[in-house]
Records
---
Amino acid sequence: MSDIKEIQEEIVDEFSMFDDWMQRYEYMIELGKSLPIIDEKYKTKDNIIKGCQSQVWVRADFEEGKVIFTADSDAIITKGIIAILIRVFSNQTPEAIMNADTDFLDEIGLKDHLSPTRANGLVSMIKQLKMYAIAYSNH
């Protein structure tokens, strides 16, 4: 399994292939289609990420020392954003997730091209994924 830094670099490389933000948004929508979808029964208010404009559900399971994330969103761009984060953080150890930086999001220019409410939602998503990691770090 690739480490977090390698996955982040892959994502930066992929986004650098596109010349403009319309193409990047389209790519994010495509990435959203590959999201490991959360089981319907977990689409509860307990799994909703607070602070997101759209609805985003995230679930974390702990298997063989790794945190496995599944998610879904009712908005296509948001689904792409959470897909990127899950690609980076899923199948990693709690410690790796807790210690990971998210500078790669600045490198691809994501924060600059999101509305303020989506940017806040992005921060909330990252915070929630790291909270799951903290919760599992004692196992």
---
Amino acid sequence: MSASLVRATIRAVSKRKLQPTRAALTLTPSAVSKVKLLLAEKPDHIGLKVGVRTRGCNGLSYYLEYAKCKGASDEEVVQDGVRVFIEKKAQLTLLGTEMDYVEDKLSSEFIFNNPNIKGTCGCGESFNI
């Protein structure tokens, strides 16, 4: 195997301010308290894992599962003592999303307020980007 020559050019760049990055996923206080409650019942798990799967009439659907450890390619979001891991396939899909927990007389569920969604199905189970 022969070594190849790589040429690099150095240019002076004016100093620029670093902008704060936006979290891939933010949780509402309601979601944080529900996740804490769920994880209190599962002491051998360290957080929740969020991902997307191909499902439903519109293409993609969210899924949640308990996580015992962080996967090699998972992105970790820590907020108010709660750890949420985002599966690699879902990282770009969930960018800028707010995770909320809503409870009413008929249902209780996590809601994902995702600005990247282009369309959803009528029942709200699946979405497309």
---
Amino acid sequence: MSFLIRLVINAVAIWLAAQWVSGIDIATPSGDYSGLWVVLFIALVFTVVNAFVKPLVQLLSLPLLILTLGLFTLVINALMLLLTSWITESTDWGISVEGFWTAVWGALIISVVNFVLTAVFPSAKR
């Protein structure tokens, strides 16, 4: 159940980031698909990337995390968003991020929305 709540929270956060940051676009395929399924697919990829790739990157960048007092986490989150973009752009259901600084702004929005929604729904904690 926690995974499904985390997936919905990530979907909301990604959708808000796409609405608020001009360089982040969600590509919907031509046809009769709902935009909800596209955002849920992107959130699924983002959740899997955050579950498997992000801990390894955090471990490898531990000296930078300590040196910057955790602010390097924002860069790691931006890189995870760029990786999600790179993975999903090969499908019709993808997210495109124009550059690194766009990814930083998107990661900041996603992090804040995740923080707020996880505080509202405490069962989403890992």
